Amino acid sequence: MSDARDLPAGEFSAWMKAVQLAIRGEGESDVPCGSCTACCTASQFIHIGPDETDTLAHIPASLLFPAPRLPRGHVLMGYDARGHCPMLIDGKCSIYAHRPRTCRTYDCRVFPAAGIESDDDKGLIAEQANRWSFSYQSQDDDRTQHDAVRASALYLREHREAHPEGNVPATATQLAVAAIEAHGVFIGRDEPTGRTKVVAPEPEAVRVVLSRRT
Q1: How far does Cα 23 stand from its chain's mean position?
Q2: How far apart are CA 211 and CA 214, in angstroms?
Q3: Checking phi first, is residue 171 left (phi over 0); if not, alpha (psi -120 to 50) or beta?
């Protein structure tokens, strides 16, 4: 893979609406993966909730184990000796129509959106994520929104106290998702021009938004 940003990630504001629905569990991510299987081959544990009965019916029980620090019934699916998802067969997901919610909502475009790197050990996801290039319907508002997500990610990384106790992001994915959810308080309006701009919000405003996530 090349480091050049040669993959169209879509129009930014449209993508933001879709990814926010996915984060809230009201939709699925529609990632133009093509032949890429980076997230399936990056030694990732896949969480499966007890309500995902259809998914659980299509995965051998021997591949699942209890998820640490989560209530009974929550499980994880591991990976094989190569770091590949055991459901990946001949380069394709063998249970795609029944795949876990984690897979349905995962979108590596959250990393370039938030301006942070993936923390996968092999760097496969980071390499793919670095290729995405967003387009902007509005050069002012859309770019401001993108800048606000990045400002949000930077703030949340540097201010761990802003997160509710017990809900501090432990991974780059969690940080990117939190930045997307909190980005709105980083957007203001320039009174003379009426254009949107990135602002430094009051710490309490950030804490209020993050508290709604728990």
Answers
A1: 8
A2: 6
A3: beta
Amino acid present at 108: C
Residue whose structure tokens are 């795609």? 96
How many whole angstroms separate alpha carbon 54 and alpha carbon 180?
Answer: 30
Q: Which residue has the tokens 């017990």?
A: 166
Q: What pLDDT, in 10s, does the model give residues 11-53?
A: 999 999 999 999 888 988 889 988 899 999 999 999 999 999 9
- For residue 153, give the amino acid letter: A
Interatomic CA distance for residues 145 and 180, integer angstroms:
10
CA quadruple 18, 173, 39, 103: dihedral sign: negative
**Axis crossing angle, helix 172-182 with helix 141-158, rounded to the nearest 10:** 130
Q: At what angle do helices 141-158 and 203-211 cross, to 10 degrees?
A: 90
d(CA 30, CA 26): 13
pTM of the predicted structure, to 2 decimals = 0.85
Evaluate the CA torsion angle 109, 114, 116, 119 in order and state its sign.
negative
Rounded CA-CA distance 107/88 in Å is 18
Q: What is the pLDDT along the chain (214 residues), one digit of tens a residue?
A: 344 678 999 999 999 999 999 988 898 888 998 889 999 999 999 999 999 999 999 999 999 999 998 899 999 999 999 999 999 999 999 999 999 999 999 999 999 999 999 887 668 898 999 999 999 988 789 999 999 999 999 999 999 889 888 778 888 999 999 999 999 999 999 888 889 999 999 999 999 999 886 5
